[in-house]
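Example for tutorial group B:
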């Protein structure tokens, strides 16, 4: 066998090995989570210059749960900012989604100008923080939209009137 044939054979074996490792499906199945934050069934609206500048905004964070229903501190949480129309997309690392499983969803309405001993910059004063949030979801299918209704969770109406946080 000539040197060129050995080099070609080595390159083919190497390419096959890399393809098998890269496509092996290692790791958990992931899905991109799409959802909406609503209040009493009505879309949560975030408007104004403060929202556009990033001074205010709603953040949603998904914390993975273990088999007993407790937050699994050994696993990564995933967060995103809610868009102007109340929708959000949680696409995880590198846009590949988050691992399927059960999650607790915490929310915060961040406002850099809002001061409260309870919420520390959270207009909802921690009502939907990790230790208080009533929202849990079983994330299995990217085609199912997650709806988080803060009005049905007994939370206080969002500042700004008519149940919508506005600046």
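The residue assignment follows.
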């Amino acid at each position: 066998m000539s040197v060129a044939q050995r080099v070609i054979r080595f390159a083919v074996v190497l390419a096959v090995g890399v393809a098998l490792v890269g496509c092996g499906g290692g790791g958990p199945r992931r899905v991109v989570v799409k959802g909406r934050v609503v209040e009493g069934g009505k879309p949560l609206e975030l408007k104004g210059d403060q929202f556009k500048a990033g001074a205010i905004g709603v953040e949603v964070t998904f914390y993975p749960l273990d088999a007993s229903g407790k937050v699994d501190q050994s696993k990564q949480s995933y967060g995103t900012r809610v868009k102007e129309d109340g929708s959000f997309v949680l696409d995880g690392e590198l846009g590949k989604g988050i691992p399927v499983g059960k999650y607790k969803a915490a929310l915060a309405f961040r406002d850099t100008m809002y001061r409260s001993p309870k919420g520390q910059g959270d207009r909802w004063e921690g009502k939907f923080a990790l230790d208080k949030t009533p929202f849990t979801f079983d994330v299995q299918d990217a085609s199912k939209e997650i709806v988080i209704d803060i009005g049905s969770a007994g939370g206080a109406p969002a500042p700004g009137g008519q149940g919508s946080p506005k600046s």
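The two ends are 75 Å apart (CA to CA). Compare this with the pattern of hydrophobic and polar residues in the output above.
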